[in-house]
Design goal:
The chain is mostly helical. It is built from 5 helices and no strands. Keywords: Heme, Iron, Membrane, Metal-binding, Transmembrane, Transmembrane helix.
């Protein structure tokens, strides 16, 4: 009979005092997953099922949504939850499969820095988006709104 080799021994888990970050990361993944399902399907329903569906999505549609504080916060919440959820999942994978301590630290730092940068950039885009910056002269409703504001 062939014996199956023992699995690699996990790194010695040193219990530090203070909050259990792994437990809170696990709880965050479950809670954010449920919220993301609601946010994403709401986003898809409004964009694809209401109005003209996919044929109605254009610059004016996006500009109209981003002018509404409800949709600004909806999109920002979806952005934050998704990026933190994804970075935390990738952190777990790195912790599971990268055995060299230095490499693991570099990868985890790179994950959190890139997630933080994308969160900052995405939040700025949502809250500072101005549909009137392009020189609109196509006679659309958006052109009339922008001309009325100036």
């Amino acid at each position: 009979m062939t014996a199956i080799a023992d699995p690699r021994a996990p790194r010695a888990a040193v219990r530090r005092s203070g909050p259990n970050l792994e437990k809170w990361g696990w709880i965050y993944m479950r809670a954010s997953g449920v919220l993301l399902v609601v946010l994403i399907f709401g986003h898809l329903f409004v964009n694809l099922m209401l109005g003209e569906g996919i044929h109605g999505i254009d610059f004016g549609f996006v500009a109209g949504k981003l002018a509404d504080p409800l949709w600004q916060w909806w999109d920002v919440l979806m952005l934050w939850l998704a990026l933190i959820h994804g970075a935390n999942g990738m952190r777990t994978i790195v912790n599971d499969y990268v055995s060299h301590e230095g490499t693991r630290k570099v990868l985890v730092w790179a994950l959190w820095l890139s997630a933080g940068f994308l969160i900052l950039l995405g939040t700025l885009v949502v809250f500072t988006f101005d549909p009137c910056i392009p020189n609109l002269t196509d006679g659309s409703v958006l052109t009339e709104i922008c001309n009325a504001q100036s």
